[in-house]
Structure formats: C-alpha cells, structure tokens
What we know:
Blueprint: E1 25-26, H1 29-37, E2 45-50, H2 61-68, E3 73-78, H3 81-88, E4 100-104, E5 118-119, H4 126-143, E6 156-167, E7 173-178, E8 184-188, E9 207-213, E10 218-220, E11 240-248, E12 252-258, E13 261-266, H5 278-281, E14 287-295, E15 298-302, H6 350-355, E16 360-363, E17 366-369, H7 378-409, H8 413-469, H9 483-498, E18 512-514, H10 518-523, H11 527-541, H12 545-550, E19 554-555, E20 568-569, E21 572-578, E22 587-593, E23 599-606
Parallel strand pairs: 1-3, 2-3, 18-23
Antiparallel strand pairs: 2-4, 4-5, 6-7, 6-9, 7-8, 9-10, 11-12, 11-14, 12-13, 14-15, 16-17, 19-21, 20-21, 21-22, 22-23
Amino acid sequence: MPAQKRRKPLPEPAAEPGPRHLLTQCSSGVSLSQHLMGTERNRAAVVVSYTHDAGSHRIDAAALARILGDEADVFEIANGVETRKLEDGLPPKLQIYGTGARVYPAGPGFAAITPGAHLVRGACNLARLAEQLLGDIRTAAHSRTPPPPSASKGAAVMVTGIVRGFASEDNSRALVNLVSTEQTVTIRAETLLPGVPLDWLLTPGQQVTGLLNLQDSTLDIHGSLLTPGSPVTVYSDGDVALARVRTATSNHARVTLWPGAEFRIGVERISSNELDCAEDLLTEGEVVRVRVLYENGTVVLSMLDVDDDEPWVPAPALTAGGPPWLDPARPYTSIFAPPGTVAGPGTTTAGEAHARAPGCETAGTGVVPRGHGPAPSPAERRSALKSTQMELEKARHTITELLEAATRRGATDKIARALQDQVEQAHGEVRELARQHHQAQHQVDILKAELARTKTKLVGTKQQLRSVASRSETGFTGLFSTPEQQFAFELNAQWAKRVPATDKAAEPLGTYVIGPEFLASMALLTAAQRTKALRAVVDLVAARQGPLHNRKPHFLRENDGAHAPARTRGEDICMRLAVEQGTSGALRLHYWKLKAGGLELHEVVTHDEVKP
C-alpha cells in the first residue's frame, strides 16, 4: 500500500483511490499509472519509491515536494506490489523501484523523453537529488518538439537539406541547400538553443530535416535536437568529460555538460590549495575537463588530478548527425570576437596592421593614431556615433531643401552656381563625417581585438594556474642514494599529507616489508602513477578503513573462476587492491599478508596481470 502521512492518517478507501493533490501525493500503483497516462495532466510528476527497510536512507518526499514547488507534483509509492502495478500500467521501461525517484514529463508522447530513474544507495543528499530532478524536468521540457507553425505564419512543409556553411559574424545563421529543389534556406540560432552558436550544433555537409516556412525561407529543425537524459547514459564512473563554465564565485563554480545539465563544483574539487578561489581559476564560458563520478547514486564532478593529456570522452552532439557540442580546440575568442579578429597572442589582424602604418604608434593596450589623443571611452564613442548620425541626417535634409528651393524659384545660373557650391560643401561635410565614423568604428574593432587577446591570455594563465593547483601532490625525486631510502621518505611524506592531523595517532604506518620486485615496478611508473601508488600503500599500511574499503582489496586467485582458491606462499596469502580506477590499464597493487603478521609489498602491475 502507498505510504501514509503520519500527521493525519487517511481512512481506508473503499475503492481504488485516485491521486490526491497534496504536498506529497500518496497513491496506489493503478491510480498513479492512470494519472500519469491521463491526457489532462499538464504538469510534470516526480514519483518517489521506498522500501520498508530503508530507514534513514528513505527519501523525504514531503521535503522534496517543498523544494520542487510548482515545478512538479510529487507522488510517493511503496516498492513491491504497488510499483509492479505501476509498471504494468505504463509503457515499457518507465518503471521505478527500490529507493529512488523519477521524473515523468507532462503532455502527449512523454514516454519518449522520460529521463532515467535516480536510485539512492546509502544516505540521501536531498538537495543534490532535487537539483538533478529539476535538471531532468527542464531538460525534458526543452527536448519536446514544438508544434508546427500556425497557418498565420505561412504554410510549412517537411524537407531535407545539406548544411553548406554559416553566415553573420556570430555564426547565428546557417545556410542549407534543399535536396529536392537546391534552394538555399536559413536556420536561425535564436530559434534553437539561445546562447549556443550554430557551428557548435551543425557542421558543413551534415544532413538536416525540418519544417520549411515558405514565407520567410527559414528551416525549423527542433525535431533534430538531442538532449541526453542523464550523465549516466553518456559517461562511466571515472570518465573525463568536457564541460562549459557557466559561473564562478569564490567558493564554487557551476558548469554544464550540455544545455539543461548543470552541476555545482566546490572549490575543494577544483584545487587542493584551500586558499584558492574558483573565480581565480575558471573563466565564464571556458571549456574545461572534469572527471565524472557517481557517489551514492548522485553525479559528482571533480577537476582534481585531471591531467592535461588525459583522454576525454567526446561531448555529445546536440543535433542528429552533428558534431560534439564542446571542443577544447575551438578558439575561445569565438565567443567574444567576430571572425577576422585576433584569436590568440602573437597574431596580427588586418585592422592592427593598418593601425601600425606610418604616422601611428602603439601605446598601452590599444593602437592610437598620432594627433588624436587617447582612445575614447565607450560612452564617448556612443555619443560620437550618435552625433555623426544626426549630422548626416541634417546634411541630407539641407541638400534636399536646397535642391527643392532651386527648382521652386527658377534660380538663375548665378544662383544655381551658388546653390551648387553649397551642395558640394554639404557633400564634403558628409564625406568628412563618414570618414570620422569609419575611424571611430575602426577604433572599436581594434579594442574588440585587444579584448579578445587579453581574454585569451587570461584563460591561458588560469589554465596553467589551475593545472598546478589541481595537482594534489608534489614529487620528491633523487633525494637519497638508494631506492629503499627514497621510497621510505616518499611514503612517510605521503602519509603526513594524506592522513589528517586528528587521525595520525589512530592511523600510523604499520609494519611492512619491501619485496624483491616492488621497487623495480615502482621505477617504471610515471610521476603521477607513482604518486597514486604511494597513496594506495599509505591506505594499506596505515589500515585506513574508509579509503582502503574503496580500493576493494581481495584475494588474488589461482585462476579466473569465481570460487578458485587464493594464491598462497606457504601460509602467506597473496592479495590485490586498486591503485587507480576508471582508466584504461588501471594499476593494481599486489601484496602478501604474512602469517607472522605485517605485509610484504610485492609489485605494482596493470589490471590484466594476475600472476604474483
């Protein structure tokens, strides 16, 4: 039976109850499925399931309903018989079970855009779960294809075309040649994903299908937009992904894996230096690498120990057949500067070369023509442009009046020559005003290019700073003459850094022996791999229960069989634990548990090596 509110028990219904519009909805599986499938439903629903033995791990559906507010109706249902009834009344693959929550969008055809369920294993972080559900609700609403244009906007037909290129300075227009008629039509960026340039969504040669408006020759390709429902459908645990920085403050940043999938990263997961600020390391609009982790059923992003040369999983395409929407190789300044401006340090544009011609000099951050003083402020430039436009209009009006006066009065040749002189003078003034306008526009272009260069330098500097700050450890090589002394020093240094001061007394380094092959295997590792191996040894030798449990220590068995006996050496037992996870060829530590007590460090090997 569905869960009942403890504050006021509900009377036992005589028949199958319908959904109740309370803060937290309580319903049976049958009535809930009828409500979800009903055509009159116009708001998203969140279904929360629970097991009777969940205890403190149970999701607080009432608190979740308060957080979601008007975004969705919240229903709570017991796992078991009722969830099976709910599954029977819904389309395939829309079930919810265990302890979890799932969003069901409103409207016809909701089954095609219903995101996956969020299952909770362990204590529930309600705020993070609510954030993920809100992301699912908004992503589903954004993914829904809008209805075809009405008859008042002109007839529309379904057509197919090939993307040929992009127009306008900000790539907000794409040109498409129709396959059937070879007519060129336009796709407008503002009708798809505002703020995302079209060259991030489409690529030349891509085939697109959409509704053609015959009146204005525009193509609507909303039906080709793709939005993954959840990161778990794109990334595995430990994958490195690309994300775009949305905002950065002193203690956190917000990044998007794709439009609608926004996540918070605390500064502690950006830099290991507790004095750093996120806004000093990240720039709004920048594309960064993040590691995707799944902790207790929730998505967590981290930038710690993400190497610059570490392979990443390509970002998903946002249109059918389109390119990855994020690319770290894409010029950063394309977000700020129009084509033709400087895209990075050391590059000179045509406008800059013109400004450095004889008679000009460079000073400060801009190029200033001699005799004109410092570059005007933005307010002065706007005022100058406005004045220029007013003078041009005044000059045109004067010319018109003079010509009309000459015709009306039947001017003599003398008067006509005088009028002609005035006309020529007015034309000269117009040309001078046009020259000043062109010069002011040229200075604006130069300042835009300089801004783009400065922004690029800032991004590069922050990337270098972040690369240094995100390294959680620093190597100490070549300090001792023997490998044994060097390893002992590095292990003690790693223990001092890794174990908090309050835990050092409870987690001292225990007794260990270095096997004959161990130091040789350590010597083959890169600096980053050696640091990871040292961390694993610290967790093992200091018997750190939490970190050691996460490394999944287990017997090294004689063969691949699940029940094969453990490898032994007399009465010593060979064990194996993870040094790194989620990477190709992940490292493992082999060690012996000695009968007499203590540990023998045997060898660091790759995942596929299973012989001691």
